Each structure stands twice: as C-alpha cells, then as structure tokens.
Amino acid sequence: MPRPSVEAERKAQILASTCKVIAAEGFRHLRVSDVAKDAGVSGGTVHYYFETKRELTDAAFEHCFEQSVARRRWILESDEPPLSRLRMVVESYLPEGAETVEAWKVWAELWVEAIRNPELQELNERFYGEWRDIVASIFRDGQRSGDIHAPGDPVELANMMVSMLDGLALQVLAGSKAMTVDAMRTTCLRFVDQLSTASVG
C-alpha cells in the first residue's frame, strides 16, 4: 500500500482531474476513464480511492470548494478594512483566468444537477451555506466597525452579494455581450461602494 503522503497526493491529483473533466465535458458526460487519463493513472487506481462514480464526484465538488476557499484565505485573514476585503472578494471571483473559470464551471454543473438530485442539493446546501457564512462574517465586521453603514442582517447582505456574483458570473460564462468581466466588476464594486454611504435594498 502506498505511503499516506503519496496517497494524499494521488487522491488530490484525481480530484483535480475530475474537476477539470466536469468543467470541460459536464457532470453527466463524466467518465472515470477520462479522469484516469487526465490524471495519468489507471481506472483501477481511481476506483481504489473512490469505489463509485458518485463518491468521486461528491469528493470532487468538495475539493473544488476547499480549493476555492484556500485560494482566498489571505483575503479572509487580511487586516484590511471590511469594505476592502469585500472588494478583494469581488476581484478574486471574477471569471477570468483558467483556474477561476474552471471552478465556476464546476459550480454551474453542481447547481444544474442539484435541481433534480436531492443528494447534490445537500452538498450545495452545505457548501453554499459555508461560503455565505464567510461573506456574512465580513459584513458583520463592517457593521461593528462602522465601515459598513447598510443596516440589516449580515446574512441577508451576504446573500445579496453572493447572488450578484453568481448570477453575473454565469452571464459572463454564457458569453453575454452585455455582461462582460469588466461590466461585472463595475456592477459588483458599485454595490460594495454603496455599503459605506447608504442602506442597500
């Protein structure tokens, strides 16, 4: 049996390849053989770590979420004022750059499939809830410090911002001529700027 460190590395490699294939081919067209090919391992190796395709895809969605948060950990741990942190969140989630675009495509696949799949609905509920809580904590800090003047529940404010990022990013990915990355940036940053001067809603 491989050493634990080797196992962890290979497992992460397989999950990264699964996310890549989901983003490129879609959730429903995912084949274990394609994942194995991209990861440079055999199909048997994939099944050694993940007995079923569902096990593999669930773990891949979780891997995508964890990697997304990890890439932005520096923002969450920053000493910058809350409004600055919200602006950094916006910039970091704009669908540009291969890594971020791939992650957005994986999330889009999860959302579409979750409409019909109760198991994926549970995954979405957990991941989305954790992400909303992270953004809400920034709003909460801003209200306490006086940096954010918008009244109301921080979770509701987080929902406004997260839904704005999600909706506009999907339009960008869908190739909208009216909603480019620059237009998305302008719209989201205008929302953040309004938090310091007036109520939102």
UniProtKB/TrEMBL annotation:
InterPro entries: BetI_C, Homeodomain-like_sf, HTH-type_TetR-like_transc_reg, HTH_TetR, Tet_transcr_reg_TetR-rel_C_sf. Residues 8-68 form the HTH tetR-type domain. Keywords: DNA-binding, Repressor, Transcription, Transcription regulation. PROSITE patterns: HTH_TETR_2. SUPFAM superfamilies: Homeodomain-like, Tetracyclin repressor-like, C-terminal domain. Residues 31-50 bind DNA. The keyword Repressor applies. This is TetR/AcrR family transcriptional regulator.
